Amino acid sequence: MSDLTAVREEDRFDVKRMHDWLSNFIDQKTPPEVLQFRSGASNLTYLLKYPDCELVLRRPPVGTKAASAHDMKREYLIQSRVKSAFPLVPTMIALCEDHSIMGSDFYVMERVVGDIFRRDINQEITAQDISVMADSLITGLVQLHAVDSSILQELNKGAGYVHRQVEGWSKRYRNALTPDVPNGEELMSWLSANMPEDSDTCVIHGDWRIDNVVFDLKQSRIVGVLDWELATVGDPLMDLGSALAYWVDQDDESAFASLRRQPSHLPGMPTRVQFVQRYLELSGRACDDFTFYEVFGLFRLAVIIQQIWARFSAGQTTNPAFAHFGAAVNTLINRAEGKIL
């Protein structure tokens, strides 16, 4: 199934008005054909098809949003800055802060052409392809974490990153609670009581997954990394824990396996334990016990999904992809609690 679809009614915008603004930055005379990417559960992403180029537009969803989420200006700034040190960032075209155009900030960037692999792979791939995907994914994260954090100095809040993350995500979960999910208080108490000191400070992605990476398997490499909404300056091991919350091993229990969004289960892919070991080996970092980071990653993912589930439950979005998010939150909270209780 194609990742592109007609724009949902609730997500439409005035294409001509947008094009008139964008024409100040690109040499295209007529408005584009607009399609919407199915993937992405947070910000809305569109393909702008012009006769001789394809661009991508990102904007926030409609409805109530977490105060610090969906910041288009921040997302644009991060990618503009990080691009110089990490070339896998897409090239930014323009940021619009004029709400008369679309009702919110939005930005446009070049489309990165290549293969994006989601839950199920519909093309023929080899054991070598899987090896390239796994190796380049781990290597790419190590390379990003080697970027000097001074490139995003204004996002560096100093020591205490782990503490701020536990406190912040706990607050978000409580604010987004619905009656059909666990209250998570025991889990949040454990996280608060078991916080390690910050392991290091670097640029982190915040949503590092196979399906946020564009591959060129013929060249055995990554050609782009997408979705920088959650990127910041922070602790690399927290970023690794967040990434592994999405990583489903071949032998994981069925409830957790049902949440898989990437082909991490394929023969030849590393297990979570092997992923951590390889990352530590390549990065030169040390971690004697990864439990806290794994549990935090599961909790953080649960909060992200719960915030969307709260919007869906309130009728602020009708995207059918969100219909089972309440059950997913239950699975993630239960899995995290099972690691510590």
SSE inventory with pairings:
Elements: E1 4-5, H1 15-22, E2 33-37, E3 44-50, E4 53-59, H2 72-82, E5 92-96, H3 99-102, E6 106-110, H4 127-144, H5 161-176, H6 185-193, E7 202-204, E8 213-216, E9 221-225, E10 232-234, H7 236-244, H8 254-257, H9 272-283, H10 291-313, H11 325-340
Antiparallel strand pairs: 1-2, 2-3, 3-4, 4-6, 5-6, 7-10, 8-9
Helix pairs in contact: 4-9, 5-10, 7-10, 10-11
What does this protein structure show overall?
- It is a single chain.
- Helices cover 38% and strands 13% of the residues.
- It is of the alpha+beta class and 341 residues long.
- It folds into two domains: 107 residues, Phosphorylase Kinase, domain 1; 214 residues, Aminoglycoside 3'-phosphotransferase, Chain: A, domain 2.
- The chain has a six-stranded antiparallel β-sheet with strand order 1-2-3-4-6-5, sandwiched between helices. A two-stranded antiparallel ribbon has the order 7-10. Strands 8-9 form a two-stranded antiparallel sheet.
- It is globular and about 60 Å long.
- The N and C termini lie far apart (41 Å).
- About 1% of the residues have low confidence.
